[in-house]
Amino acid sequence: MASSYVNNSIFLLFCLCLNFSKVVFGGDFNIDFNIIFGDKRANIQNGGNSMILEMDKYSGSGIGSKNEYLFGRFDMQIKLVPGNSAGTVTAYYLSSQGPHHDEIDLEFLGNLSGDPYVLSTNLYANGNGGHEMQYYLWFDPTQDFHTYSIDWNPQRIIILVDNIPIRVMHNRQNIGVAFPTRQPMRLYTTLWNGDSWATRWGKVKIDWSKAPFIASFRNFNANACVPSSSNNCYGFNGGKNKGLNGETKMKLKEIHEKWNIYDYCRDFRRYARGLPYECCKTNNRKNIQDVDFE
Ligand SMILES: *[C@@H]1O[C@H](CO)[C@@H](O)[C@H](O)[C@H]1NC(C)=O
């Protein structure tokens, strides 16, 4: 009896691994993450349901996922450092390791009380960054929790705020533009001192008399693929991210017009010798079926 039970459960396990390439995590900070710096300043609470990051003048703090993921949708509710948060950076990002790393970034740049936070997004592909787009938010992100999501699949990356897409990055490998499709990434959230550049280009420094600075996180959820010998992840589409419909394109355009404050594709000073290839719409149109708003 005992041995047939064991055989059955091994058989079942084997089938599950082969048939389902996705792995769903209900989100327990204790199970899914390690503290990567700041020791007790990263404080997991409520039995793994929520977490706070603190920064004092000795250190910030951060956590990183135990798993590496290749594609998936990652949702996190975040309440940012309140009051005078100038110079602080709260980051929520995916990153691979090594010299030609990939990274998908959301960085929240703090500000003086009453002045707006900036959400700075960026992409590194094969070690190349420089794809920043920055936004003001349409709410005070320090008053309540809001959901910030990265939805990454082989075709495109969508960044969402409260389920509203604010930025889409398409895979343009077919026209020679690097895009993250090969390197698995870990998910990180960190709180650190960015006062050399973050707030008004480094003019406003951290007021350490206001320390400790605290950002709060809860309801982490990943619907993501963990690569292994039986999972290659390339067929994965856990984020229901299957092309953009007309409504989504309209919303993106609206958000861009109202809330975007920096777009690398319009930075003619930085790219005086010519904008990156993917910034030119005619280059994009050459080889792509679904031309979306950029
Ligand atoms: C901070 O507030 C100033 C003044 O409103 C604004 O120009 C700036 O974009 C805000 N954010 C950052 C991160 O500097």
TrEMBL record:
The Gene Ontology terms for molecular function here are: hydrolase activity, hydrolyzing O-glycosyl compounds; xyloglucan:xyloglucosyl transferase activity
Positions annotated as glycosylated = 111
**EC numbers for this chain:** 2.4.1.207
Tell me where the signal peptide lies.
1-26
Keyword annotations? Apoplast, Cell wall, Cell wall biogenesis/degradation, Disulfide bond, Glycoprotein, Glycosidase, Hydrolase, Secreted, Signal, Transferase
Known Pfam families for this protein? Glyco_hydro_16 (PF00722), XET_C (PF06955)
Q: Where in the cell is it found?
A: Secreted, Cell wall; Secreted, Extracellular space, Apoplast
An example GO biological process term is: xyloglucan metabolic process
Q: Please verify whether the record's keywords include Hydrolase.
A: yes
Q: Where is the active site?
A: 103 (nucleophile), 107 (proton donor)
Is Signal there in the keyword field? Answer: yes
Domain GH16 stretches:
3-217
UniProt's post-translational modification comment states: Contains at least one intrachain disulfide bond essential for its enzymatic activity.
Cellular component GO terms held in the UniProt record? apoplast
Main localization, broad class: secreted
Question: What enzyme class is recorded for this protein?
Answer: transferase
What Gene3D superfamilies does the entry give? 2.60.120.200
State the family named in the UniProt similarity comment for this chain: Belongs to the glycosyl hydrolase 16 family.
Say what the protein does.
Catalyzes xyloglucan endohydrolysis (XEH) and/or endotransglycosylation (XET). Cleaves and religates xyloglucan polymers, an essential constituent of the primary cell wall, and thereby participates in cell wall construction of growing tissues.
What this protein is called in its record is Xyloglucan endotransglucosylase/hydrolase
